[in-house]
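Example record

Each entry pairs one chain with its bound ligand, adenosine-5'-diphosphate.
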Amino acid sequence: MTNTGDDGAGSSERPRPASPGTATAVTVTGVDKVFETRSGQVSALKRIDLIVAAGEFVSLIGPSGCGKSTLMRLIADLDQPTSGSISVFGKSARQARLDQDYGIAFQQSGLLPWRTVAANIELPLSLHGVAASERKSRVGELIELVGLRDFADRYPDQLSGGMQQRVAIARSLAEKPNLLLMDEPFGALDEMTRERMQSELVRICAETKAAVVFVTHSIPEAVFLSDRVVVMSPRPGRVQQIVSMQLAADRTDGLREEHAFFDMVTAVREALHQGSPVSSVRGVENR
Ligand code: ADP
Ligand code: MG
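Structure tokens for the complex follow.
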């Protein structure tokens, strides 16, 4: 994907990467993460090297416990690597967090229970002094986008888990960030809503040119969304293989039924199984 760095307005506030041609959203260099626990050390990540270009969509896939969420938390500066370094748009992870350079949608929606759906989505805009009229129209747009028009005035505990997650996604998109960090954001959604959200995310990324780091357990989801899929090994998580999706840039729904799509699903599956035989299930996972 190309980077056009098209959010020229406000560039005085948000330093842009020096050269658009080589712009990177995220650089992870030699990162290890060891957790100290009562029963000893847990090595969660080992020698992770990863570069996510501006505007690129990269998915992380791998067995449970391989460190996907840990890696996301390190990028988001919610925890620190044991060794190695991480930069986000050329800044330290910490500075990027302080500058709110990215939107986050994690497994837990993290909504404020005392604010309505609309007020939750509006929160980042209020915090950053966006004018009331602009806030209102942006919130309206986002509520429409995630299909919650009739729920704008509800509170989180009045929503299903899937609906709460849609609110969290809308909130992460509120400021049209250049980077989205998404950890299984669609995991709680039913299959139809999930595919719709995937298509919406593709459209949003095309519009905003946002880079995305996306964790999923679903191979078809990773294939549909990504430019590259990072396949991680069981704990301690390492980058086992990076599979480039040889697919058309515009990801329309029809793609889900194309041969090229199944080929990529198979390629990711084989990378996950490290070359173990998969012939019995080849190509059947996308119902
Ligand atoms: P994934 O998201 O791929 O399922 P995680 O990143 O959540 O995996 O966890 C990776 C490994 O690190 C797991 O073995 C998990 O138990 C361990 N882990 C994660 N967070 C902590 C923590 N705060 N303290 C101790 N161990 C942790
Ligand atoms: Mg996880």
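Strands lie at 24-37, 40-53, 57-61, 83-88, 91-92, 102-105, 179-183, 211-215, 228-232, 239-244.
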